[in-house]
Structure to design on (187 residues):
């Protein structure tokens, strides 16, 4: 390809097919020009335009115009479009969401396991209590049926039975081992 620029007038132009011929004083034959040689022009060429161009000789020996511009017509600045790398922000957002979901699942599993342990403890304790034989104290049968406070008792013997045999009772306020001292077991 020659590095010299030439000028010539556009003699013919086929708009439908996007090519034409430039008449030049320097060349014996008209120079072929394709629309792709006029990249960046603000309008398409018309017959009579003065074209600046370089010449490239093809393998078949024919010449064609390249790197052309239309004299007096503004060029459009092309911004080269870079191929954007994968959006790293979207990868980070995806990873963050995955991490948060994983943490929530782990926390949920931990709470479930803890809840299951507590539930299992209460179920096991309840089954154990229900399977306990009834103890007879002065011919009265008592069984653990959920009484917890002194106000629910009917005697000192019942309070002692509940304190000694049933879980979660709240009848020994001063911790001396004697239940319901103010109501039933005052000595």
């Amino acid at each position: 390809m020659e590095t010299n620029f030439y000028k010539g007038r556009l003699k013919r132009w086929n708009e439908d097919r996007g090519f034409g011929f430039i008449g030049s004083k320097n060349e014996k034959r008209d120079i072929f020009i394709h629309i792709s040689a006029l990249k960046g022009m603000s309008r398409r060429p018309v017959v009579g335009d003065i074209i600046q161009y370089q010449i490239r000789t093809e393998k078949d020996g024919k010449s064609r115009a390249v790197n052309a511009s239309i004299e007096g017509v503004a060029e459009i600045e092309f911004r080269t479009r870079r191929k954007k790398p994968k959006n790293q922000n979207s990868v980070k957002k995806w990873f963050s969401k995955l991490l948060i979901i994983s943490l929530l699942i782990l926390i949920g599993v931990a709470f479930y396991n803890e809840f299951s342990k507590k539930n299992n403890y209460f179920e096991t304790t309840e089954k154990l209590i229900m399977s306990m034989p009834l103890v007879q104290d002065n011919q009265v049968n008592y069984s653990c049926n959920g009484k917890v406070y002194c106000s629910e008792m009917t005697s000192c013997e019942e309070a002692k039975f509940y304190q000694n045999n049933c879980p979660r009772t709240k009848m020994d306020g001063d911790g001396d081992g004697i239940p319901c001292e103010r109501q039933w077991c005052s000595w």
Remarks:
- Residues 127-187 form one domain.
- Residues 113 and 119 are 10 Å apart (CA to CA).
- The first helix runs from residue 88 to 131.
